[in-house]
């Protein structure tokens, strides 16, 4: 995503739009990371209610609706937390530090592929939820429209991230072989 939108010059000092690149990347990663953490809530609730065998006071939402709702809330929370975290980490840093981090981010091929997969999955998740909502009269599985759209994007992003990890060409064994063979500088593809 970022590698197609922004140029990658030969030297970090020449990197344009460094603030934008780093901010977009952090918000994007926060969205996916928050969704993953958000999915733990319904899983934990299900495990604990099964173990304790206590009935809930209110009628619970269907499993899929809880999953979608938790992914939506988690992704928005993760985005907000990483925005605060990035601000705290980069506060008072020199412009060259922003440029260097952005330049290295654009140079990392595997991270660029991960961003592309994650964004593509999020788009497919939104499209899928849009189709379900259109058929469901404005709701998907009993959740409000905003949770359906954001939750669909979050679940799509998670699934695409998992797909990228599973199909990645750089296994630990491949990296070890390159290091042992001394094949030039180690570059993660």
Structure write-up:
With 189 residues, the protein is an all-alpha fold. Helix content is 74%, strand content 0%. It contains 7 helices and no strands. The radius of gyration is 20 Å and the shape is elongated.
**What Rg, in angstroms, do the CA atoms define?**
20 Å
Our count of helices gives: 7
Unreliable stretches (pLDDT < 50, length at least 5) are none
Beta-strand content bin? under 5%
The helix/strand order is HHHHHHH
- Give the strand tally: 0
Structural class: mainly alpha
Largest sheet: none
Key structural traits:
189 residues, 74% helix
Task: Reconstruct the topology from this structure.
Blueprint: H1 2-5, H2 18-52, H3 63-90, H4 95-107, H5 109-135, H6 145-167, H7 172-181
Helix pairs in contact: 2-3, 2-4, 2-6, 3-6, 5-6
Quick gist of this model?
With 189 residues, this protein is mainly alpha-helical. 74% of the residues lie in helices and 0% in strands.
């Amino acid at each position: 995503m970022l590698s197609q939108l922004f140029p990658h010059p030969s030297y970090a000092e020449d990197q344009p739009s460094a603030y934008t690149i780093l901010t977009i990347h952090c918000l994007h990663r926060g969205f996916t990371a928050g969704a993953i953490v958000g999915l733990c809530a319904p899983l934990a609730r299900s495990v604990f209610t099964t173990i304790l065998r206590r009935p809930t006071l209110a009628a619970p939402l269907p499993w899929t609706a809880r999953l979608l709702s938790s992914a939506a809330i988690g992704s928005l929370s993760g985005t907000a937390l990483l925005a605060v975290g990035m601000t705290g980490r980069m506060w008072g840093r020199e412009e060259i530090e922003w440029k260097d981090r952005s330049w290295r981010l654009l140079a990392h091929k595997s991270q660029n592929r991960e961003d592309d997969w994650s964004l593509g999955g999020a788009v497919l998740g939104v499209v899928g939820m849009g189709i379900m909502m259109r058929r469901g009269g404005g709701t998907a599985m009993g959740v409000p429209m905003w949770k359906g759209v954001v939750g669909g994007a979050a679940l799509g992003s998670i699934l695409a991230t998992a797909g990228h990890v599973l199909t990645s060409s750089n296994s630990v064994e491949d990296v070890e072989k390159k290091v042992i063979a001394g094949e030039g500088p180690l570059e993660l593809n």
